[in-house]
Amino acid sequence: MTKHKELNKWVKECAELCKPDKIVWCDGSLEEKERLEKLAFKSGELIKLSQQKLPGCTYHRTAQNDVARTEHLTYICTKHKQGAGPTNNWLPPEEGYRRAGEIFKESMKGRTMYVIPYSMGPVGSPFSKIGVELTDSIYVVLNMRIMTRMGKAVLDQLEKSGGDFTRCLHGKADLDVDRRLILHFPEDNTIWSVGSGYGGNVLLGKKCLSLRIGSYLGRAEGWLAEHMLIMGVEEPSGAITYIAAAFPSACGKTNLAMLLPPEGLKRKGYRIWTVGDDIAWMRIDTDGKLWAVNPEYGLFGVAPGTNTKTNPNIMAAIKKGTIYTNVLLKKDKTVWWEGGDPPVPASGTNWQGKQWKPGLVDENRQPMLAAHPNARFTVPIQNVPSVTNRLEHHHGVPIAAIIFGGRRARLAPLVYEAFSWQHGVFVGATMASERTAAQFGAQGEVRRDPMAMLPFCGYNMGDYFRHWLALGKKMVAPPKIFNVNWFRKDKDGKFLWPGFGENLRVLEWIISRCKGEVDAVRTPIGCLPHENDIDMTGLRIPRENMNKLLAISKADWKEEAASIAEFFKTFGKDLPREMGSELAALQKRLR
Ligand code: OXD
Ligand code: MN
Predict the structure, then answer these.
(1) Which of 279, 328, 466, 521 has the fewest CB atoms within 10 Å distance of its CB?
(2) What is the average pLDDT across 117-135?
């Protein structure tokens, strides 16, 4: 119970629909965490890991049909279809409430409904948003405890302000993919998610509130909610340049946000500060510049491929207080995944609960996986050795550069800079990437993913581009916009660029451009580095690789422009005129 009348009323309504045996209001205390863990160990929802080797860590397996975000079951429910736009699935709100209501109906019988008051952003900051999630999953409560600021302090704040909150209802129901819906009602500040237990679908503060509802609120209130990491690059002088970067899911945002300088650049004394790895809320501050906060409090990162070489910071962070999902469980109650630190274990129980050892094949004669490719760790951001000390600062950090990037085997060079804010918005709007394991569907297929927001924009994407253009006009000195591609391959399918820590070499060029310290080569697609302006000290890759990485094929780009024109057609009248002019200008430069 709470003094907040609206909240009480809504919890009661939801309980009448779902009929839980019990309602528990979460206070966020350690005692509560331990009590819930005990219950989850007993029911098998969680497994306790070795407290000697991994103190405070637990293990969870999702249902096998429930391992990634299900974009085809995710809807924006607005009065008019136009509000959701051409890139979102749409339902009229009554229809959404009716369909999901049938699944929610009495689905919590025999279960407990937990009430989680949470804040995205520091509690009490004028820029934060409060949500309340109702859920019948202890796994969700324990994850929300890491990913957000939650519990008593937030409820106190909500009562004190008497303000509005995002109504987030989640129920596992029967975890049947045919009875799964992730619905957003931006006009009601409401989210309903039913039939799933996978993080991206059920930790409703993350994608659902901070991005889909957040972007809708951002347009109404004049700010941006973006699928971006935020990092600071500190020079020995103490000056820190902050960068925000958008990449589609599972393209290395977590690794970039906390990279360690590579050997060859160590002499320069850089230090990286991690502000966030997935979401940025950005607004124009009193100085007329763009500032960003990370509304989250933890990281929900992809485990496979993560190891001490690719990301030493995260490997240090996940040694305690972490929830592991869908990784390999070893006999000594520690964990492992493909691409994890050696040695490869001799055996274990895999993400499906099957006995696993190296070399086994599954029923389709494919190598049997230890971990699901989208296996995850949930870890408090304060565990990360490189965490910024500005996390609680409600203004956040000033952004000097915005980077867009996709996973593209061909076409896009290692890095280029947009000619202007408007051109940068065009570069972001036409981003494309190969599909990864974070989304349900055919892996590797190239799809357009504007600003990496295709699955997360809570309103008409044409209006979203317009909003970006309008904010650019309001800023005194908008950040410079860049595009990077760490994933270009040669003819034999080998990556041309080593990636990971070495990406700092590219960030260094970006920062020099922001400071006006180097000039660049003007090409039809944007400004590229001069051959010697990327510091290659200590990095031994063939000279010709660098040429290939920076090469621009006019023929390929003409094809790309034609494909962009097709993509733009899907927006019809909703496409801002400026996007059409930028495309025409690109085509002209390519002639
Ligand atoms: C994520 C995603 O989990 O983008 O961050 O899927
Ligand atoms: Mn993400």
Answers:
(1) 521
(2) 97
